[in-house]
Amino acid sequence: MSWFGFWSSRTQRAEELKLSSSQRSQLFGSHEVRAALQNEQMTSLLPPVGTEVFRRFTPASLEKDHQKREAEEEEQPKKKQDPPKPANHLEAGKTLPFIYGDPPPELLGTPLEDLDPFYQSQKTFIALSKNQIIHRFNAESACYLFSPFNRLRTAAIKLLLHPLFSLFFILMILINCVFMVTEVPVLKNAEEYVFVVIYTFEVVLKLLSRGICLGRFTFFRDPWNWLDVLNITAFVLQLFVSVRLYAVIVIARVMKLFAYTPGLKKTVEGFFRSLKRLVNAIILALFVLGILALFGLQFFMGVLRNKCVSRPLHDTTSYNTTSNFTTHSSHYDNYSSFHDYISDERNYYYLPNHLDPQVCGNLSYSGVCPKGMVCLRAGRNPNYGLTSFDSFGWSLLAVFRILTQDVWDNLLQLTIRAEGKSSMSIFVLIFFPGCFLALSLIVAAVAMAVAKQKEAESAEAKQREEEYSRIVEVLKRREEVEEHAPGKAELLDEHESPQKKKPATHSQEVEQVTVEDCEDDLRPSRCAFTLNILKGDCCSCWRWLKEKLRPFVMSWVFNLGIVLCIILNVIFMAMERYPMTENTLDLLSNVNLVFLVIFALELLLKLGALGAYGYFQVRWNIFDFIVVIFGLVDIALHAVQGLQFLPPLRLLRALRLGRWWSELRMLMKISWSSVGSLGLVLVLVVFMFTVVGMELFQDDYMVCRISTDCTLPRWHTEDFFHAVLLVFRVLCGEWMESMQNCIQVSNGTVCVIFYMTVLFIGNLLVLILFLNLLLSPLSDEKQAEVGKETRIKWTKTWILEKFRTLKGKTSSEAEEGVRKEHLALITVTSDQQNPEGSQTKDSAAEVSNKTQDKKQCEDAQKLKDSENQETGNRPEDCCCECCYRCCPIQDIDTSQGAGRGWCKFRTACLLIVQHRFFEAFIIFIILLSSAALMFEDVNLQQRPILQMVLDIADQVFTYIFLMEMLLKWIALGFKKYFSSVWCWLDFIILDVSLFCLIFNSLGYSTEPLRALRTLRLLSRFKGMRVVLRWMAASVPSMFSTLLVVLFVWLIFSIVGVNWFAGAFGFCSNETGVPFSEAVVENMSECLSLNSMEIQWKNSKFNFDSVGMGFLSLLIMATSSGWQDIMYAAVDSREIQSQPVYESNVYMYLYFILFIIFGYFFTSIFFIRVFIDTLHQHKHKVGGKHVFMTNDQQKFHGTVRKMFSKTPEKAVPRPQNQCQARLFDLVTAPIFEIVVVVLICVYVVVLMLDADEQSIETEYVLLWFRFIVIILFHVEFILKIVALRQHYFKFGLNIMDFIILILVTTGLFIAELFSKYFIDVGVLPVFRLAHICRILPLIRWARGIQMLLVGFLMSLPALRNIGLLFFLVTYTYAYVGIHTFGHVKREGMIDDMFNFETFGNSMISMILISTSSGWDRLLSPIMNTPPDCDPGTDCSSPAAGIVFFTSYIVLYLLLVVHLFIAVILESFSSRESEQLLSNEHLQMFYNTWKKFDPDASRVIQYSQLSDFCDELQDPLRIPKPNSIRLIHMDLPLLPGDQICCLDVLQALSAQAFGEPGQMDTLKDRLEEKFNVHKPQVSQEPISSTLRRKQEEVAAGVIQRAFRRHRKQDKV
């Protein structure tokens, strides 16, 4: 199933199924009903008619099962069919199927005979719990002592299945979890012994009831029981051995919660099944990351140790790490060697507020040291020595940082400073695509796993529902027969239940209504009186008031008024800001009181109109009631200090809009859907990792190793709350900083294992939760779509009505028009008459009309195409018809005179415009004009010659584009030219360019407008046009989705303003470090110091207004700078007070809630609507690919052909005997495998390389490389001799030849290659592409192959989106030069990352393309005087906010497109994956024709060996093949003949591991090759394996008979 097919069918779910007692009695007691349902899967599991369904398990039952098993063993050799299999519906742990009904209460927890026929002969029995879960037990004696009938074992089973038993242990585990995170000094860990005793009792109980291990359903055969053993064993070992195993105990006890909760247990089991499906993706991702780490090792090994080392005064010597120290010993009196001097950290250059010394480089465009310092490789690497590419392990860790986007910007900055700006190309061309490949494949694999699991669940539910409907249909027919039987009509009329008179789908509803009516009749009078009071029917005046109020309350005018009041209330709440005058504050308080009165009045009116009973029947009314109560409490406790959480509760009023706003309601349902099994599993996993982290690292934090002031870092595991925050931070993808701190204070290996485990399992659970919420159906999803269409139609009708009124129509005419417009909105319900016939006629008419319209459109298109062919070289009319009517002089005769000459001139212009060279020339000019932008920078005015050249080029480009437009006007005419959107775009850009020329001549600066030149590329590249067309089509739905997201962010922004407005200020000196609260308490004390260096500053990203709150929330959602905002909030106190370290620690929860609700759920909602819109758009364009052109879709076939095992054109085998043997050698699969192994060995040798390794190690590794390269030469010689000129017909061979030439050349000029091109030592890594050849040979690697095929098929779509993304980045980089080129160097803007030159601007834009650290680039732009000089380095904060936010939004949108494109193609590759291709079938059939010229589809069994040997790979089975053919167990037809379909199916299973379905193979053979019908009987009489067994048996019998004859003769 494709992605869109799955997306369309995901809302189809089976409803709850249940049979009535009368229906079950007929099902159990009627032979006719059972005969009619004998082919049903579940019905076949029922016992014989007249037999009890639930029977106690007795010794007689055990004896009967024993006899049945002996009978089956005797009959088994006589049977040819496969042995029976267990029934899926009766598996242990599943709910009892609906056909069995409810078991008697006295049989719950009691041993019963097994209901599954498969297990009835396996010595098993079942027991049912109260929730009808099936539990299966072995009938063998438990612990070799207790039989199934032993009272102790029976009592143990009953106790084990009792609901209170599970509830008790769940409660014990929860209490144990509470004790895990709290310390009670009084108990002194005595509670641990109590819990261990309880868990031991549980294990003993399970052993008594299930047995130990002999049997399928014993204690140790259930993996969940291993947790109990692990728990007790770890506790006992901890008592006698000094080993810290409490972390293991925590994991075992927390996971026991899953075992006791069926929903959580099913979710965890599904998670582990998903891990099995992800093995291929994980292997491929690790392989890609390993290759990337290898590249990082070869390119950047040791470069991050470059540091600026101080040079002694008057010393101008050129230093390196091997300088002779004794020569300059006078300068180093305190050091014994030069190495000691450069290893001293006091001699390094440090930037202010930085712990690590500044990294530098000695290459072009690298970091430069200050005057008086020299760049040397010395000391350790940055970040405690944990950030480097010095070995394969560290390089892999660095690549993993890039993959997870965790402070990778810091890694990029360090690398560029050390290796120069050219190293950016390594990141852009190698690291980014490789990491995207690994990450997208994992996401696609998880999406396919989740979709496959949901498909299986949906298929099972659908099958169960279909069988239920068939059972009900048979029972209804049986009831109808009984109703018409004589003598039973009256009896049936008297005793027939309502369920027999109604369809099965309405039986529960009728039964519920009947029960409610009976309950109303049987209620006591006092209860009835109370109910009347609640309903408002106690007196006539109250009923009269209800009748008057109800129409008004339920009218749309009342609802519209409430909606307007809610919107106005939100607007007034959003007006709060800092600072605010007292009048404004009083006004907002009074407005809030007015709205509270309005909503309270609404509550009273609804209570009066509906009554309390009717009012609280609606959930939205309950929510409204709670909101009003909170508002009243807020007013009552307004003067109480410390209740700052009450004012934000007013914003619950905003959520009331979800009652009328379907998109907001959908988002709320998505959030509520997360409170399910998977969400609880995620919460428990977070708790488990939190407790484990506390146990492992709580006592290890030696804070002086991390911070200079010996304070605890913000992220630690000293207490439970901070440990939860740390785990949550890791789940958000930020793990590197916390792991670095952990390595400094604890065991590094344990830290790495812990953080990698949390990162992998936690993020995988988050991703699965994300996809489950994304793919889960919502109950009102279709209703929202219908409601949206209805609103659009209603709006259209209203506009038409107003338009008719303006035109002067009478009211009656207008009403008639409205009535006609409303006809389309009328839907036929089940209560209306004649629904089926009218719908059938309408649908038939609609189909016929559509068919006619389609035919007419096709005819019109053919006519239009023919006309276009005839008039393709003739210009069309210049203007439209109205222009000719208004100005007849334009209509000239083109057949004679001047008109004829004008027509010829236009024809010539048309030929020029349509010529391919003209279009190529325009594209070249566009590229040239765009490339000219790269030469502009902030220092352009200091280079007048370059500026003059660029100005002249700008004029030339403008005149060329003007000439192009004039030619197109003449050739195409105004009518056709301005009918194209892309021509309009060119026209507008040219107009802007002309105006720029005019303004430049007048002395005005218009350089930023030159960036519009790049937009001309959009109309020239079809791929970008396709993506843009889709993006334009998705604007309406995306706008409504974005509106919902902004509304949610508005709520969080208002809450932030209420809590943090004016609280982000601090007093600091010129270094920006805040003073301690002991020095400065508040703003007034800070200003009283009267120092120019000390001032009161406010954080640039704050919550002083709703607008700034939006910006801060955007940083929170998309940038790594969210920590600074969160730290400021946590340290904040009151308004204008100096912040104190974590004085408001629980404000962390605000940001956690925003990440969950404002980012996670809104992302799900956004992508959900995005995919839905994509699905609709694809349906509108006829099922075409949305992100590819028609030509690019042909690439799919190329990719499939590349990875399919199609029979290639064979290279002719040479005639020379020596060459022939070499040919057989190099074409054998084992040779390719040996080559790949050799390449892998070379890669492993490269992985062993490291910085500062010994000379002996370098020597050994060099010899290894040299030997492997010699073997590569030997491989080349063997292939070139064996394949001759055919060697260069294969792409991989050409690549091998080029790499071999480069490596051989690089051995002599290695330094030249490594300096200007690439390190030749890494070139053979490209030969790993040979793995593509051996993937089809490895059965488990076919999943990897399918993932690779899906990614490669998405390359055209990724190219289109990537080109658009590059164009956006290029344009923004140029705009940044002229907008922020003179910004003060501060924050991230420094000498390497700035907007002063195009290269630096491009690097800065690429840096923030992953939305990492863009707030630090925006921070200097937000400076205002006195922090900057208005004449030189000040910029516009508004322009900076618009610039960066628009870029981030475009980036996020395009990244979503990238991942969706890969996922779509992964599903497409899974859908279209046919292991047996048409080429295979063609080869098979051509070979079969040689042995079956009559096309009878059968050959003799004796010919099978020759036939299989003559086939081509992969179906070929070379001789000797008799043993393999025998084990294929092919059916033998009469006359010892073999059918072609049987052979093809067996060969498919042999080659691909998956046998093709017989019907599918038959259809493909008959459809493609037109196979004749069989001429012989298709009923097999034996098989190849059975024939061999018969021959062996016959030989044994003959030999025994001969020996017997010899003995008789003797």
Brief rundown of the structure:
This protein is mainly alpha-helical and 1610 residues long. The chain has 61 helices and 11 strands.
Polypeptide structure, described:
62% of the residues lie in helices and 2% in strands. With 1610 residues, the protein is mainly α. It has a 3-stranded antiparallel beta sheet, with no helix packed on it. A two-stranded antiparallel sheet has the order 4-5. Strands 6-7 form a two-stranded antiparallel sheet. β2 (124-128) and β3 (134-138) form a beta hairpin. The longest helix has 61 residues, at 424-484. It is globular. The protein starts with a helix and ends with a helix.
What does the secondary structure layout of this molecule look like, with pairings?
Blueprint: H1 3-9, H2 21-29, H3 31-36, H4 59-75, E1 112-113, E2 124-128, E3 134-138, H5 151-161, H6 163-181, H7 190-210, H8 226-240, H9 246-260, H10 262-277, H11 279-300, E4 306-310, H12 338-343, E5 373-377, H13 382-385, H14 392-404, H15 408-419, H16 424-484, H17 489-495, H18 498-501, H19 507-522, H20 525-535, H21 540-553, H22 556-574, H23 582-615, H24 619-636, H25 662-673, H26 677-697, H27 720-731, H28 736-745, H29 748-775, H30 781-807, H31 811-822, H32 835-870, H33 881-886, H34 897-914, H35 916-931, H36 944-977, H37 981-1001, H38 1022-1033, H39 1035-1060, E6 1065-1068, H40 1083-1087, E7 1095-1098, H41 1106-1118, H42 1122-1131, H43 1148-1180, H44 1194-1203, H45 1217-1226, H46 1229-1247, H47 1255-1283, H48 1291-1306, H49 1310-1316, H50 1331-1334, H51 1342-1353, H52 1355-1380, H53 1398-1407, H54 1414-1421, H55 1437-1472, H56 1478-1491, E8 1498-1500, H57 1504-1510, H58 1522-1527, E9 1531-1532, E10 1537-1539, H59 1540-1552, H60 1558-1569, E11 1582-1583, H61 1584-1609
Antiparallel strand pairs: 1-2, 2-3, 4-5, 6-7, 8-10, 9-11
